[in-house]
Amino acid sequence: MARKPFIAGNWKMNMTVASGTKLIADLKPLVKEAKCDVCLCVPAILIPAMVKAAKGSKIKIGAENLHWAASGAYTGEISAEMLKDYGVKYVIIGHSERRQYFGENNDTVNMRTLTALKNELTPIVCIGETLTERTNGETENVLTRQLEFGLHGVEDVKQIVIAYEPVWAIGTGQTATDEQAQETIKFIRKKLSKMFGVKEANRVRILYGGSMNAGNCKGLMAQPDIDGGLIGGASLKLDFAKIVNYEK
Ligand code: PGA
């Protein structure tokens, strides 16, 4: 079965109820013929308003994180049940900014991923190497560890979306070339094949992320192993619709 392309936005810590509502209202008519799945992952506090704004459109609203516990003394965290209350389907896990600034590691990524799956939320699990790791030839080792620890205990890997985001490409304007992205994502799929079997690995959607924009999306999306994009900066503007409509 062919993998359905998936374009997901990541608003990070941007937008307000007013600006987000306006952007979604403007995007709605522009993405109405989208052939791919479309989602915008937004700050938790904006979820209720953005779900309302996106109602009746192709745009699904996702979250940027979730905690592994069902409830309890975890100040500042959000549970799967809270997300499901608003009909959220997708949740970003282990974004490199969370790994870099908030102590996220492969173990916490694993706990969050398993919790998302248990709650029928689709985790968008982020992996990727830093510039130093790439320069030192450690990319494959880093990705292997992120996959082996991060996905430990996962039973049905096709329920997961992987986002390969080289840290050096995020928010820098320095996109990986089509070939670099394809080659690394092919490696990720090969690794998934070893872990879960070829058939299962071939059903996992793997996105590229890192300065993907309206200009470079077509070339990236044409690569055989790239099934979509996780879009930061360009998801804050109407350009997001151009990426969703990359085929046009
Ligand atoms: P960017 O962010 O598109 O702004 O590089 C991507 C991401 O961090 O998911």
Structure description:
This protein is of the alpha/beta class and 248 residues long. Helices cover 40% and strands 15% of the residues. It contains 11 helices and 8 strands. The chain has helices at 17-30, 47-54, 80-85, 96-101, 106-118, 131-135, 139-150, 178-196, 198-201, 217-221, 239-244; strands at 6-10, 37-41, 59-62, 90-93, 122-127, 161-164, 205-209, 228-231. An 8-stranded parallel beta sheet has the order 3-2-1-8-7-6-5-4. The longest helix is centred in the last third of the chain and has 19 residues, at 178-196. The model has no long low-confidence stretch (mean pLDDT 97).
Please supply descriptive tags for the structure shown above.
single chain, 248 residues, 8-stranded parallel β-sheet, 40% helix
